[in-house]
Design brief:
With 220 residues, the chain is mainly alpha-helical. It is built from nine helices and no strands. The chain has one domain. It is elongated, with a radius of gyration of 20 Å. The two termini are 29 Å apart. Keywords: Membrane, Transmembrane, Transmembrane helix. It holds the Pfam family DUF3159. InterPro entries: UCP010219.
Length: 220
């Protein structure tokens, strides 16, 4: 591999990791559930105390993200997920039900990613292509399209892993283990997913391909 090819691959990898790392959003997603679990446990298994702790932490995170320039809609959706989980748990009287919206979110996400692959609009390509301002050009490169499709299965696997872990714990009403699982299966799992999907991308792209930032135009 030439020095130029090495530099291109390094730049592509750094761009890919930066676009999909999602450390901030993954941490934000894990802190309110952790606050719920801690509040529930320390408050004598009180769902109200746990819910209050989760909403306070969610509100603090939302305010911080808004100050950092986050989109208000994204912040609002995050807060609504926390509130919905709290309302469900209070309504049913089962603390484990706080995690129901997250179960549903992972199930819907897995379905959306699988559907996107089936219709040849893999969401990984959509996200990266949009961030790189490529429009639809990445779809006109059959090699890149195939790479995005295969790498998107890694993201499907991420959601399925969470469901495989979360569903039995939820059925067992295991609030404490659900809290731990939520913490472990957010940022650490996202980091692994990003790294593995990049590896899959590189395995699918031939050595002479210009990389994710330079889709090839179809041959006339």
């Amino acid at each position: 591999m030439t020095q130029g090819q090495t530099d291109i691959e390094r730049d592509d990898r750094d761009s890919f990791m930066r676009l999909l790392g999602g450390r901030g959003s993954a941490v934000d997603a894990s802190l309110p559930p952790v606050a719920f679990g801690a509040g529930w446990f320390l408050g004598g298994e009180s769902i109200v105390i746990g819910s209050a702790a989760a909403m306070i932490v969610g509100a603090i995170l939302g305010g911080y993200r808004l100050r950092k320039g986050a989109r208000p809609l994204a912040v609002l959706i995050s807060l609504l997920v926390v509130m919905l989980g709290a309302l469900i748990a209070i309504r049913t009287g089962d603390a484990a039900d706080f995690f129901l919206p997250r179960l549903a979110s992972n199930a819907l996400s897995a379905l959306a990613w699988m559907t996107s692959i089936a219709i040849r609009w893999p969401l990984l390509g959509v996200v990266v292509g949009f961030a790189l301002r490529q429009g639809r050009r990445w779809r006109h490169d059959p090699v890149l399209l195939r790479a995005y499709s295969r790498a998107s299965w890694v993201w499907v696997g991420q959601y399925l892993v969470r469901l495989v872990v979360f569903i039995p714990l939820w059925l067992a009403g295991a609030t404490g283990p659900l809290t731990v699982a939520q913490l472990v299966l957010t940022w650490p799992l996202v980091a692994v997913c990003v790294a593995v999907s990049w590896w899959v991308m590189r395995r699918c792209l031939p050595a002479d391909h210009p990389g994710i930032r330079h889709p090839r135009e179809p041959a006339m």
